Amino acid sequence: MMKINNGNDNKQNKIILKASAGTGKTYRLSLEYIANLIRGVNYKNIVVMTFTKKATAEIKERIYDFLYQIAFEKYDWIGLEESLKELYGFSDSEILKENLQNVYFEMIKNKDEIRIYTIDGFTNRIFKNTIAPYFGIYNYETIDKEEDEFYNDILIKIIGNSYYFEKFKFILNEEKDRKNISTYVKIVKSLLDMQEKFLLAGDNYKEANLILKNNKSSRSFVENFENIFENVKKIAEIKGKKVTEILNGKFTDIFKKFEELNQNNSDTSAVQDKKIELILEKSEDIFAKGNIWDGKKTGRKDVKELLDEMKEEQDILREKISNYIFNEEVLPTDRKIKELAKIIFDIAEHTKLSTKRFTHTDISTYTYKFIFDKELGFVKTDNNNSSTVTEDFLELIGGQIDTIMIDEFQDTSILQWKILELLLSSAKNIICVGDEKQSIYNWRGGEKELFENLENLIGGNVQNLKKSYRSYKQIIENVNKIFTNYNENWKYINSLYRDDEDYQRGYFGYYFQERKSRYNEDEEKPEKAYEEMIRNLKEGKIQNFGKSCIICRGNKELSEITARLNEEKIPFTLESNSSILDYRAVKPLYKLIKFFVYHNFIYLLEFMRSDLIGCLNDHVKYLVENKELIEKYITKNTKLSSKNLRSKNSFEYFVENLENFEKKENLLEYKNINFMERNGLLFSEILEKIKELYKLSINLNDKYAKENFSKKIIQDFGVTSFYSTNSDIKNIFQFFNILKEFDNLYEFVVHIEDEKDNLKQISSSDENAINLMTIHKSKGLEFDTIIYYRKGKTGGNNFKTFETYFDYDENFASVTNFLITFSKYTKNVKNIKEYGIIAEKNVQKEKMEEINADYVALTRAKKNLLLYFEAYITKNGYSDDLIKKLIDVYDENTEFGIGEITETERKIVSNSENLKENAKLEENKINNKILKTYFSDDKFKIKKSSITLEKEFKRKKGLAMHYYFEHISNNLENDKLIAKSALLSRYGNMLGKKIVEELIVRMEKFIEKNSDIYDEKYKVYTEFEIYDSEGRKRIIDRINIDEENKKIYIYDYKTGFEPETNEKYQEQINEYRDILSKKVSTDYEIDVKLLEV
Predict the structure, then answer these.
(1) Distance between CA atoms of residues 403 and 33, nearest Å
(2) Which range, of 62-66, 387-391, 400-404, 1078-1082, averages the lowest pLDDT?
(3) Which one of 207, 662, 709, 898 has the fewest CB atoms closer than 10 angstroms to its CB?
(4) 529, 789 Cβ separation under 8 angstroms
(5) Residue 772: strand pairing partners
(6) What distance in Å separates the CA atoms of residue 65 and residue 54, rounded to the nearest whole number?
């Protein structure tokens, strides 16, 4: 290992770790954290950032574990100490165990002060504590992404404002499909996605193309075009052919028109203008491959001199036309797009601030936008004109930062870097970890060049971690073979593998299904490559499904495979780490319920636009334009005279009885859009069903009401017909099982939001189910067996409305170019040198990211790696670079395998038993019988809940009590104020203010009665975490340490009557004493007591 400078001077200590997949970066980061503690850095001044919640939890757990082992000399503490000594040069005398024990206790006691975040979480903390209060926002909702209705609403506001609409008209003139509103919604979204670029370019973004703007447009390309025609005439004369025979067929018409114009010289200016118009109409053909003339007809030797002149003229012609179009069309378009974008940004910002709903991207965007605001005073400039954050700013985000560690740095965006750069300047120690080969987030702004150039940007000591501690020999050796010399622009250093005997095994194999990109109607298409995978799974090639994962590039491929797995009754888990609230069949139902609870019209729009209902843009537009009346129809009990109940509640009757003629006319428009083609439903009937459900939702205080409400949602909208897979059914019923425990929807929503991270989606089979996920979801994970299915490249049209040319200087300090134009100008803009370079750079980025995605997929495997690829063949061979490399490495075999499948043992359930179990589920298609079973007899319960409302409420009260006492140390006057405020903040809405205040009175009486426990002589730890000999965590409510008399008191709060008589409680607290006695000096006497509150 390379030794790291352990100096304590004032210079910044900067480390850049380049860690290939599986090389133990979490282990290393954890050691870096411990090393900082040994050096005396306060844990409160160490900030760690990574990109996922899972990684955050993993590194936090690893730090606690390592610190405990070293401080108390447990388990592998000798190995950990040796690593610390080897890496950082520590001596035994520098690793002070008593100090580390005290730090461990402090970190356990003050968990909230440990600053380990996701990068989104850290930015959110900055936003919440510094930016949001500036706007008077103290509570807001964080969402993953905006729904289409958000963009639709922006478009409606543009169309409804004459000034905005004037600025939008050029888009209408450009787009041919004017009637399709979704086209314009996508345009709004694509411009909003560019907001980060606008912010980074700053107020001077309009001048990013200043040099080219100052160029004058030259019209002399007409002369070059005519010179070519003149030479074509000469060649035709030499060859004894007509001019139109020598010309490329695409240019015969323009030649004839030029000839006609040249015969009429009365208005030279008008003729010139007409010629320019004709040339510009032909610009696409001029820039296409080939020449203006037909090379097959010209010959070579006898007209070589003329051909050379023509080629030179053609090159000049293309360059001049490019410059002309750029100045006369592209730059004016760029200005118009940017003006429109600014309008869209303003509308979006106003909407977000008023609704208090922000995506993580919004939070980063607004943090960057306002952090430099002089009025806020968060950033200062030093004598060297470098920016850094003020002490006030640091105080607001948790205090001074001595050490900052950033994981997965290759996925950092430029905007995130600009924020992080401010913080790095104030830190003494900087550790950045990443791997350019795993950069797969370019599509959302990740800039791997930042990490590639980080050494130049911040300086520092670069270290490479090359040894994989994850994968077996066969995986490593074959991944090395594949990626060595894969691409001249993609750097790869061979990985090493572990020496352990087990790690010398493993399996690598692949299977290709050759296919053409197109087949005639009478041609038989070959089966998909994944059919071979399905056969292998059914035949038992892989036994331990739970330790295996199928990875695909995108959701479309996953959908194909899940459909086949369902058909073959093979159990699977699709993104099982996701909340049930994100499950596709649950999401629309939850949106509707949230509308009933919060009366937020956005939730209704999201429900109506879901796949289940299938509203199109016309329906959304109608709902938005008639929002107040629609809400009134659904939520109000309108008094109508009709005796017919169906008519009385019908939407038609509501509209016909409106007194306001204008409003009535507007509402009557529903008849033109009533039939919804997407799902064959009637728009008015959907509204009527929502109205009926709203009435039912108001009171759910008995079992019948809850069952009726749940059953009606499922039946009215045909939920289980639309979502009918085993996974769909299980998740739908799990959702309604939870709902059945609550007497009102508000309590249900509060509970499910509070517990959403713990309420996981259920797969088609709960036992031994194979995992499925995209490459992006799999990043950071590992499985014994990876099955990678790749559909391959088939070409296709990825048309975009806009093309963006955006570039920085080499230090990422300022924007050097920022151009937005319509995609139709792409070929033309590429002929402008500066933009041609940017375009090529963008192409290379996409290509490198594709290679990175394959690398990530192949390096998730620990023991076995199986590849199943669709191998598309073109006239030039295989279209896919990865397939080309595999064919090259493995001697043109379309099927290959080496090694033996190695799996972790599991409890074997025969494949036939699994299939029988799944067959039973398959037979249970949801029908009225099952609905009756579920809602009446409670037999159909996928995961029987032990929760009752009474039990859950009691549990929450117990948690609230412990949360209060967690804040009580021995400074009672101050502690009680803090505890009361914290308790009301966290549990006020959940339990109700009255109940919380009653709890506070009860606990204050307890404190008064037991004041000796809270004496200032004690050193106090609350909610103290300890681990038993098997590594299981235990939490002690309160520990009092009497240093003078060498006594330790363990207290456990209980709400039951006479808890000391409960044997279970006594065993628990005695266990605490036994564990703690092994962790402290034998000088201390330990006493335990159960406290009845």
Answers:
(1) 9
(2) 1078-1082
(3) 662
(4) yes
(5) 550, 574
(6) 16
